[in-house]
Design brief:
Elements (H helix, E strand, L loop, with lengths): L2 H15 L1 H18 L4 H49 L4 H41 L4 H39 L2 H19 L4 H31 L4 E5 L8 H6 L3 E3 H4 L18 E4 H4 L11 H8 L1
Antiparallel strand pairs: 1-2, 1-3
The structure holds zinc ion (2 copies).
Length: about 300
């Protein structure tokens, strides 16, 4: 495996997992649970929505841009040397316009996801309030019960995600050994961890899961576009599709892995454009052909978890 691709993919995975991204969103939700729940569901949920969208606009997407450009550097350095790196380092002109237009779309998609979730949470809260008054339950008791259940679920979600992350690494390790029995067991453990991470009961839990997912997808798409804009600016026009989630890559991404086309031909069919089974959650990358053509070792989709597993 080419070490530059490994370096780029590893850096990308950091962004994709967005550890601090996740805690930011959980913190806002946690704060919402503690301070504002029930006071005025609509007003408070609107405030929640604004905060989440602002977080996306001001923090995650600019960070994704930066990371996308940085992950392009090792590849530019390998194929074009210092000149290509310098050319791709500062985005200007068309690549920059292409990127900011895409950012507007990402914010819009994210805002829609948050909108749906806040509406759901608002109606759940109102229903609980109505139930309390119908059943003559003290409002304060109802509030503290709901707060407890929301907080417990947020905590559980966070824990389930850590377990899933470990399971991903364990599967990569098993795949590296080629031991079929171990692979089977690791797959089973991963699928169990995955359903635990998605098993939520309250509107708050659903919001957490959906908003985190939408945030990750938006950041991932933005990283991919910034990376591609950097290659474009450095002058590369022909690109090869590289699937970077190993055995977890969907069938359409696995089939596309290694396909080479001009940027014009990729237009509208880039990773995350929605034409693959994985849709907006696609993790793949378009890499300048000059880099991948001599690289026989990139025959199979790349597993980003494997790199960490091998490192230790
Ligand atoms: Zn896919
Ligand atoms: Zn893909």
């Amino acid at each position: 495996m080419a070490d530059r691709i490994v370096a780029a993919v590893r850096m990308k995975r950091k962004v994709l997992e967005g550890v601090d991204q996740q805690s930011d969103i959980i913190d806002i939700l946690d704060n919402f649970v503690r301070k504002t729940i029930f006071r005025e569901p609509d007003r408070e949920t609107r405030k929640l929505k604004r905060e989440l969208v602002a977080l996306m606009r001001k923090k995650y997407l600019p960070r994704a841009d930066e990371s996308g450009r940085r992950s392009a550097v090792p590849i530019l350095d390998r194929i074009g040397g210092d000149a290509a790196v310098a050319k791709g380092a500062r985005l200007s002109g068309r690549p920059l316009r292409y990127l900011s237009g895409f950012r507007q779309a990402n914010i819009k998609w994210f805002a829609q996801e948050v909108e749906t979730s806040t509406v759901a949470i608002s109606s759940e809260l109102k229903a609980q309030l109505a139930k309390a008054s119908r059943d003559s339950i003290a409002r304060a008791d109802m509030i503290s019960d709901v707060i407890d259940s929301y907080k417990a679920e947020l905590k559980q979600t966070r824990k389930a995600r850590r377990v899933l992350e470990q399971a991903n690494k364990a599967l990569a390790n098993a795949e590296a050994t080629g031991d079929l029995k171990a692979i089977k067991a690791a797959r089973k453990a991963r699928s169990k961890a995955k359903s635990a991470a998605h098993n939520v009961k309250t509107a708050m839990g659903r919001m957490e899961t959906r908003v985190q997912g939408a945030a990750r997808d938006a950041v991932r798409r933005e990283t991919q576009r910034a990376q591609l804009a950097t290659y474009r600016q450095a002058g590369y026009t022909v690109y090869t599709w590289v699937a970077v989630n190993g055995a977890a890559a969907c069938d359409s991404c696995t089939a596309l892995h290694g396909t080479t086309r001009s940027l014009k031909e990729w237009q509208g069919n880039q990773p995350g454009d929605g034409h693959t089974y994985c849709g907006g959650s696609c993790m793949c990358e378009l890499v300048p052909q000059e880099f991948t053509k001599d690289n026989e070792s990139i025959k199979e989709p790349v597993n980003p978890y494997l790199f960490d597993a091998l490192e230790k």
